[in-house]
Design goal:
- This protein is mostly helical.
- The chain is 67% helix and 0% strand.
- It starts with a helix and ends in a 15-residue tail after the last helix.
């Protein structure tokens, strides 16, 4: 990975972490680290798969 690409990846990760924290806090108040991580993982999955795919549609386990 080139230096420029690393910087972009780090900025994207930080942006997703910030968004995950904002989403988790807006849903349950002051979210703990595990909740923020779960939201972050979901955002990453959705970013990687794109808007047309929904791999969690067949998932039967919920996290609430």
């Amino acid at each position: 990975m080139a230096i420029g690409e690393r910087g972009r990846a780090e900025r994207a990760t930080q942006a997703l972490l910030k968004l995950a924290k904002e989403i988790a806090d807006s849903v349950i108040g002051e979210a703990d680290q595990a909740t923020v991580r779960a939201v972050f993982d979901r955002l990453c999955m959705e970013t990687d798969t794109g808007p047309d795919l929904e791999p969690a549609a067949q998932q039967t386990t919920t996290y609430h």
